Amino acid sequence: MISSENPSAENLNEKEPVKIILAEDDKDDQELFIDALDEADIPSDVTTVENGQQLVDALKDKSQPDPDIIFIDINMPVKGGKQALEEIKGDKDLRDIPAVMLSTWDHPADIEDTFDKGANLYVQKPNSFAGFVLLLKKVFLLHWAKALLRPVISLFFVSEKNISQRD
């Protein structure tokens, strides 16, 4: 497990950093995510895990506070993202933690399956760093209240293609 702080000096005085657990087996994608949060000026404290089992174990570890949000890659070894999501949303102590699914794919069956399993948002991984920054801004600044607190299918799937700089 890697813990990385991503402070933004101006905003830290105003807001507590968002506590995030990122379940992602690809080290490059972990770094991209953390760098994009920094570029998006989202004060955060990110803990990374490399598979769904490590995610579930970290969430059940009561010596650590619950995160504000979890990002879960769908395709991981040991326990995949969908399995981890199902276990988390089936646990009365964990089910209220907002869960954002990450995938390179935009298969309608995957999107619908994760929605049905209780995910709060499904994000297609962008092809560019700028796209990732824009996407994270959208997730944290615009979709937080609407999509994460009461998900509706029309706001559930977010990709680089369906957001614009103006949003």
TrEMBL record:
PROSITE patterns: RESPONSE_REGULATORY. This is Response regulatory domain-containing protein. The modification 4-aspartylphosphate is found at D73. It comes from Flavobacterium hydrophilum. The keyword Transcription regulation does not apply. The keyword Phosphoprotein applies. Gene3D superfamilies: 3.40.50.2300. SMART domains: REC. It comes from the Bacteria. GO terms for biological process: phosphorelay signal transduction system. Pfam families: Response_reg. Residues 19-140 form the Response regulatory domain. Keywords: Phosphoprotein.
